[in-house]
Amino acid sequence: MRKARLARASLCAAVVAAASLWALFGAMQTSAQSAYPTPAPPAGSPTANAASVVITGMTTSDYSFQPRTLKVKAGARVTWAWQSNAPHNVTFSKLGKQSMTGQSETFKLRFKHTGIFHYFCSVHGFTGKIVVHK
Ligand SMILES: [Cu+2]
User: Fold this and answer.
1) I need a surface site. Which of 2, 20, 64, 126 has the fewest CB within 10 A?
2) Is CATH 2.60.40.420 the right assignment for the domain spanning 50-133?
3) What are the sequence ranges of the domains in the chain?
4) What is d(CA 90, CA 82) in angstroms, rounded to the nearest whole number?
């Protein structure tokens, strides 16, 4: 009787040990996976504190900011990347901010305050807006 109880107890201990080994193995696999860099979010998909706009177009009729309206949280930094065959710029006239005019620029601006911020390319006139929420 006593022997049987002991055997059952040690079997339980073995199962618990196997389960924790399995859990440990799983944890190791998870941490190994997170060691790889996470891919950058696509243009215009805002994360908590960063987002991006691409300046696109290969003809005058399709030059544009993509996305044209970008929503971000207050404090976020927006990066514009040029991917077009013509010189463009990013001009916030009310904020008094303007990027360089060129074909392969990048421009970064941090939006500390909530509001709607309209901007445009002063060379071609196409527009965009940044909507900053809490
Ligand atoms: Cu332009």
Assistant:
1) 2
2) yes
3) 1-36, 50-133
4) 10
Distance 87 CA to ligand 1 centre (A): 6
Q: How far is the C-alpha of 63 from the C-alpha of 83, rounded, in Å?
A: 10
Is residue 129 exposed (0-12), middle (13-18) or buried (19+ Cβ within 10 Å)? middle
Return d(Cα 66, Cα 31) in angstroms, integer.
35
Q: Residue 120 C-alpha to ligand 1 middle, in angstroms?
A: 8
Distance 67 CA to ligand 1 centre (A): 15
User: What distance in angstroms lies between residue 38's CA and the mean position of ligand 1's atoms?
Assistant: 32
Q: How many angstroms separate the alpha carbon of residue 64 from the centre of ligand 1?
A: 8
Q: pLDDT tens digits for 37-51? A: 555 555 555 556 999
51 exposure class (CB count in 10 Å sphere: 0-12, 13-18, 19+): buried
